[in-house]
Amino acid sequence: MEGPTVGMERFKAYGARVGVWLQGGLDLSVRMKVVVGPDPSLVYRPDVDPDVAKDKGSFRNYTSGPLLDRVLATYKLMHTRQTVDFVRKKHAQFGGFSYKKMTIMEAVDMLDGLVDESDPDVDFPNSFHAFQTAEGIRKAHPDKDWFHLVGLLHDLGKVLALAGEPQWAVVGDTFPVGCRPQASVVFCDSTFQDNPDLQDPLYSTELGMYQPHCGLENVLMSWGHDEYMYQMMKFNKFSLPPEAFYMIRFHSFYPWHTGGDYRQLCSARDLAMLPWVREFNKFDLYTKCPDLPDVDDLRPYYQGLIDKYCPGVLRW
User: Known InterPro entries for this protein (predicted)?
Assistant: First the structure.
């Protein structure tokens, strides 16, 4: 059986051949910077556990550093093009879930071909991160098997990148569209100037098109792997608890769960779910380490969870 180190090299070589081009808005040299280097949207995180991060300050440095150009370029595209109209079109495009039919494990295997270079310290396929996150949760919460499965599932929406979607419409911190972006949104003051929604009186206020405390279930989130996977789970009727759906949908909504913003849109239920989302984020991203899990050894356990909560061939 091929060991994890050999497997990593094979997957890295394959992943190096996978390119997802950002479409339009940048010249070729900038597009090369954005695609080839680390995924900018996941590098600078606002609440890194100091016991895990090598240098906590590096995750909050938005003014200098080797990744700054591509970080800014990706968020500029995202914050310009993620509009109410764009998000509604993506819901219509993918809401029928006719992209592909496959099992959960087949989706995990697809991520073997996606080397997510979002972390400056490690470089291995996203599928390993799925198992690492799940195993971190399993160790800390041995009695909550559904929570273990969330760790495996949470980034599977990134199959959109392998379907040809641009990075700014797949990865990155999420935010509500249809209202003015709040202060803790990454690059809030420098990347939204060309977003047409902010020229619309309906969408440019703090509440925008929403009612106070309408609940996040009634909010149109920016489009990406979180929202897509959440909608896919609903469509396929996963038998997971509500906490799992919240974790999947909002794990990249850092302005909410870490920045403390958008409380004016939250219902009491959202605030009750917030600790669960924060608990999940302890294990997302920062469980990554060079000691890769023995995926073949772990598969039977997680296949059992899949058979329990989301079995069979699913529509994506």
Answer: Inositol_oxygenase (IPR007828)
143 is in an annotated binding site: no
What pLDDT is recorded for position 74?
Answer: 84
pLDDT, averaged across the chain: 80
CB environment 133-156: b (16+ within 10 A), e (fewer): bbbbbbeeeeeebbbbbbbbbbbb
Mean local confidence (pLDDT), 285-297: 65
How distant, in Å, are the alpha carbons of 66, 163, 304, 305 from that of 312? 44, 21, 12, 12
pLDDT at 267: 98
112 annotated as a binding-site residue: no
155 is in an annotated binding site: yes
Instruction: Tell me if 227 is assigned to a ligand binding site.
Output: no
270 annotated binding-site participant: no
Spatial neighbors of 268 by CB under 8 A, at least 6 apart, are: none
pTM for the model stands at: 0.79
**pLDDT tier for residue 36 given thresholds of 50, 70 and 90:** very low
* Residue 251 assigned ligand-binding role: yes
Is the sign of the CA dihedral 305, 306, 309, 312 positive or negative? Answer: negative
